[in-house]
Amino acid sequence: MQVPNPVQHYSSLAAPSEEVYEVIVAGGGMASLSAAVLLARKGLKVLVLERNYLPGGCASSYWRKGYVFESGATTLVGLGDGMPLQRVMDEADIRFDARMLEVPMDVFLPDGQKITRHAHFERWKEEASSVFGDRRQAGFWDLCMKVSRFVWSSSGRYPFFPIQQWRDLPSLLPQFRLSDAPMLRFAFSTVQEALQEFGLHRNEAFCRFVDQQLLITAQNTRSEVNMLFGATALCYTNFPNYYVPGGMISMVKAFTDALLRDGGSLALKSGITGIAYRDNTWVVQTDTGEFRAKRLVSGLPLNNLVELLEDDSMQRSLMPGQMRAEQLNSALQLGLVYKSEGAANEALHHQVHQSTSGSIFFSESAPNDHLRAPEGYRVGSVSTHARTLGLSDVNKQKWAEQSIALLEKRGLLNSAHLIYSHVSEPSDWAAWTGRAWGFVGGYPQFRHIKPWQMMGANPLKNLYLCGDSVYPGQGIPGVALSGRNAALRVLRHWKP
């Protein structure tokens, strides 16, 4: 059985036939695609420009040696009533195959003890209390869940937060609920302070566990991550988690198909080389030509966008929102192909804590997903945080060998069944995504940066920002939400 190559679907994609559009969307990641499909659905003439040969950015997949590997994101949250990705899909009439996971994740502590991150909230609280030996865990997790539910519910009700113009205020006030007010204090406190409130800050094993879980989504640890989003990061396994057959590219395909269905255009291998604003029109230079539009939605990381802008004053106005290379994270990633012999692991996703510091995250394709690997084989992805390009000095082959040995030690992999592997490092991430210094995972959360201090969705006239470097929330739900918010602002300002 031959595994389909995702590239084939886009090989016959027609090049843009026009030079002038109503909206240009820079970048083809999930934030950009979320904005683009919503705008196209409303009838606007939209062009998406993507430098790579496949759309999706860090939430895509690629074909190599006859197998489909994930290019970044391996877990999917955000579907279900009121969830951000579901909102975008419902409003743009998008559907794709997503299968709910019974066990979202297993976590292995340094001593080898396994923790099952049960989706059922009460079971998870019991598990946490039994493993970490403190009944006060229940109160901490109840608070995390309460805050998480507030974040998810309020994210759809406040699309124009943070307020940038007085005319945003009338749209926010009718959505305000008295129960929202007490939640605001968690934007000013950290996860560490919540742990102190419940007397859990002295439980070293639990604090280490919290740090490693936060790093997956918030890109930082308990002393820096504010409780508003830290709670959401810690509870994401207690909301429906899904697996996408065929890889994340199947989800991306559903979005690009919807874009084209509704009259939008997608230009691949069209890297942006310069952006100018002239005569109230955005002029975007690319490898394949020049395009113009009255409005520009950028899903590019802020660091990249600033470098592309022609106008010095525009650059200066956006620079305060940038982060430096040493503040960001890149990654090491190991792609694996192995025979699916013996009993399959209960979970598809595993976080394995190392004895010294840090952890690795191991995701597997489903045993019956023959869109990613032929029958009898499976594809795996191992990743860990690394310093960004120019700062990282890790020996990638040594890291790969150590990771395989650790997975085998925890009973997650049999090295005798391995048939292929390849390693990606910060330079590969820079080449694949085009992101400055090969950073991935979004801007980390820092305690001195409150949600409303992130770069707003509409900082300059007719420029709208989305993506994981300008919105206080990460992962697919966060970027989909940021894309929706950018699209709503465009539509609000739109005058045919």
General description of the model:
- There is one protein chain.
- This protein has three domains: 15-65 and 75-98 and 246-325 and 442-493, 3-Layer(bba) Sandwich (FAD/NAD(P)-binding domain), CATH 3.50.50.60; 121-161 and 170-238, no CATH class; 326-437.
- The longest helix is centred in the first third of the chain and has 21 residues, at 137-157.
- A hairpin with a 2-residue loop joins strand 12 and strand 13.
- Helices cover 32% and strands 20% of the residues.
- With 496 residues, it is an alpha/beta fold.
- Strands 1, 2, 10, 11, 12, 13 and 19 form a seven-stranded mixed sheet that branches. It has a seven-stranded mixed sheet with strand order 8-7-15-16-17-14-18, sandwiched between helices. Strands 5-9-6 form a three-stranded antiparallel sheet.
- The model has no long low-confidence stretch (mean pLDDT 91).
Keywords:
32% helix, FAD/NAD(P)-binding domain, 15 helices, 3 domains, seven-stranded mixed β-sheet, alpha/beta
Radius of gyration: 22 Å
The CATH first-level class of the largest domain comes to Alpha Beta
Q: Can you tell me the CATH superfamily of the largest domain? A: FAD/NAD(P)-binding domain
Spans where pLDDT lies below 50 across 5 or more residues: none
- Class from helix and strand fractions: alpha/beta
CATH architect. name of the largest domain: 3-Layer(bba) Sandwich
In total, how many domains does the architecture comprise?
3
Task: Report the oligomer.
Answer: single chain
